[in-house]
Design a protein that fits this description.
8 helices; disordered C terminus; mainly alpha; Cytochrome Bc1 Complex, Chain D, domain 2
Length: 148
């Protein structure tokens, strides 16, 4: 299968955000597969930057994204309106070996957050805008488990 979505810088940027929000939890922002969830899977997620993945055809990568891989942690993400998003992800997976530090930093801001992280972000934003945090934030995490 040939990718029917035209490659543009905006498509690549859109797929960067999609990958960060949906895929990075298992595959990591850089595609290495070295994440908390990825390390707990069997088989482990592959390093998407390496030849084993990069040598697959666009159609094969699209098929994996849409249909998953049986007997692994890779679920099927296909659905009624998913094919364009899956084709766009093919471009981003192809881009992973050239991922820049700036792109990876941008992706970190797009990764899903826990409710605790979201509350901390809100409290920080409120403080920076001259208010007082409405939710107490954890402080001195570096002291956890240490005694005085």
């Amino acid at each position: 299968m040939k990718n029917p979505v035209p490659m543009t810088p905006s498509i690549l940027h859109e797929s960067l955000g999609h990958f960060a929000d949906h895929c990075a939890v298992c595959h990591a922002n850089n595609g290495s597969g070295k994440t908390m969830f990825g390390s707990g899977l069997y088989p482990k997620p592959p390093d998407l930057r390496l030849a084993r993945t990069q040598s697959l055809s666009d159609g094969e990568i699209f098929f994996i994204v849409e249909n998953g891989i049986r007997m692994s942690g890779m679920p099927a993400f296909g659905g009624d309106d998913s094919s364009d998003d899956s084709w766009k992800l093919v471009y981003f997976i192809r881009h992973l070996p050239q991922l820049t530090a700036a792109e990876e930093t941008e992706m970190e801001a797009l990764n899903p957050k826990t409710s605790e992280e979201s509350e901390e972000d809100k409290a920080e934003e409120q403080f920076l805008n001259g208010g007082f945090p409405s939710v107490p934030t954890k402080t001195m995490n570096h002291m956890k488990g240490h005694t005085k």
